[in-house]
Design brief:
This protein is an alpha+beta fold and 470 residues long. It has 13 helices and 4 strands. It has a 4-stranded antiparallel beta sheet, with no helix packed on it.
């Protein structure tokens, strides 16, 4: 839907004053193109703003970096299959004396050793599966962060439009009240009004000044938040912010989609898998380990002659844990409790997501009803104000009655603007609650981040200090 398409605000005074004020108000509203008409060709649409946030938001980019760091857990786990190689060297001299005889000897040696694990109590297998589950959980966490950022961007976008509209409405109200003050003074000067009329109109004008200052402050805050999230200042935002095309048709559809699409549920599921594999990894510390070890060395000893010694060995090593002070048994029990906790968190997450969907659906439906009610209220109050104006012109209503009617109309107009904003934000909140607020589902014109690319680049990487993302 498009925000802010309601009638203009009228005020008090003689008929000519009303006509001038009406024309002045309409010109002010029409000057704010983002409020009065759908998007112009050069206006920035809400999808463009979301695409900018998707590409530039530092919080989202930090979450992507965190995922890339989590990817490195897989090659670290796979290293349990691979050999370790080390080398060492020593050099020095030895001075000795006995019975008045002294000698000096130079010593040097080099060695190379290699160890190849053959069996580690299934810890390598389970560690790899645990790392892969953590990667999937972190991907779901990234998807949740993406939804949060896009929701914040949509909300800040609509907030700027709403606050811009309220500023224009406040300025129109102030402009009209200034006209009423002038008209009241003119009537007082010719003996057709009272000083009370002038004071009442002047008081309402002062209130309008205060409301305008508050509206401008709120707009500046919304613009600052928009820049923080999207990465640039809002310029010529389009009021065409249709949301119905992506909102689910019914609550049942929304609940069904949330069970499979919501990233928080997906993350909790993978966290359960990771906790399960962690318990198996810890249990593996109670099993034997088997490794094959080889070494080669050469040493030099010199006195009056040089002696060279070479040696090499190949050994099979079996280590059978018997008792480790009870620490491993405690770790196994701890890991099992952590697994139980992860399962309970999954249940709680499912319940929370369901509650969020139902709440968001209710908010969205309420916003739709509020718009209908607010539109009717604006139309009715406009007719009431027109009637009060006519009655005041013939002496049947006072200036205060017309000022009160105008204040009520401004209030209803503000309520309508707020309801329109709440409908759009509520729609995006509902889409986020079911897990569909992502770049692909929204069809954003932006290069989508592919987490699989970095994962494949590092999974089987044996050596190298340079990150593929550098």
């Amino acid at each position: 839907m498009s925000l802010l398409r309601s009638p203009s605000v009228l005020g008090t005074g003689d008929r000519g004053c009303f006509v001038r004020a009406r024309k002045s108000l309409k010109s002010l509203l029409l000057s704010c193109c983002l409020m009065a008409v759908p998007a112009m060709a050069s206006a920035e649409t809400i999808k463009e703003a979301l695409a900018l946030a998707y590409a530039n938001n530092p919080t989202l980019n930090a979450a992507r970096a965190q995922l890339r760091a989590t990817d490195e857990g897989v090659p670290q786990a796979l290293s349990g299959w691979r050999p370790t190689v080390s080398g060492s060297g020593t050099a020095g001299g030895t001075h000795s004396s006995s019975n008045g005889n002294s000698s000096y000897r130079n010593n040097a040696s080099i060695s190379l050793s290699i160890s190849q694990p053959l069996f580690r109590g299934f810890r390598t297998v389970n560690s790899t599966k645990q790392a892969e589950a953590l990667v999937q959980a972190q991907r779901a966490s990234l998807a949740a962060t993406e939804q949060d950022i896009l929701l914040s961007a949509a909300q800040s976008y609509v907030d700027v439009i709403r606050d811009t509209a309220l500023v224009a409405l406040s300025r129109s109200d102030l402009n009209f009240l200034q006209e009423q003050v002038r008209a009241a003074r003119d009537r007082f000067d010719v003996g057709e009004g009272t000083r009370t009329d002038v004071s009442q109109a002047d008081a309402r004008r002062a209130e309008a000044v205060a409301r305008l200052n508050t509206a401008i402050a709120n707009l500046n805050t919304s613009r600052a938040i928009y820049r923080q999230i999207v990465g640039q200042d809002p310029e010529r935002l389009s009021a065409d912010t249709s949301i119905k095309v992506i909102v689910p048709r019914s609550l049942d559809v929304a609940l069904s989609k949330s069970e499979s699409n919501q990233p928080l549920i997906v993350q909790a599921l993978h966290n359960v898998d990771a906790a399960d594999y962690n318990a198996k990894v810890v249990t593996g510390n109670l099993l034997p380990t088997v490794s094959l070890e080889g070494s080669a060395s050469r040493s030099w000893t010199t006195n009056t002659s040089s002696d060279v010694t070479n040696s090499a060995s190949v050994l099979g090593r079996v280590n059978i844990p018997i008792f480790q002070g009870g620490v491993v048994h405690s770790q196994v029990r701890q890991a099992k409790e952590q697994l139980g906790q992860a399962r309970l968190v999954l249940d709680a997450t499912r319940n929370q997501v369901r509650a969020n969907v139902i709440s968001a659906w209710g908010v969205y439906q309420a916003a739709e009803a509020s718009i209908s009610a607010a539109t009717s209220a604006v139309q009715a109050q406009q007719l009431a104000l027109d009637g009060v104006i006519e009655e005041q012109r013939v002496g049947q209503q006072t200036t205060l009655d017309v000022l009160d009617a105008q204040r009520e109309l401004v209030t209803q107009r503000s309520n309508l603007v707020t309801a329109q904003r709440n409908l759009i934000v509520g729609g995006y909140q509902l889409v986020a609650a079911i897990g569909d607020l992502d770049a692909e589902s929204l069809g954003l014109a932006v290069a989508q981040y592919n987490p699989e690319r970095h994962y494949k680049a590092v999974r089987d990487k044996w050596i190298g200090l340079r990150s593929p993302s550098e």
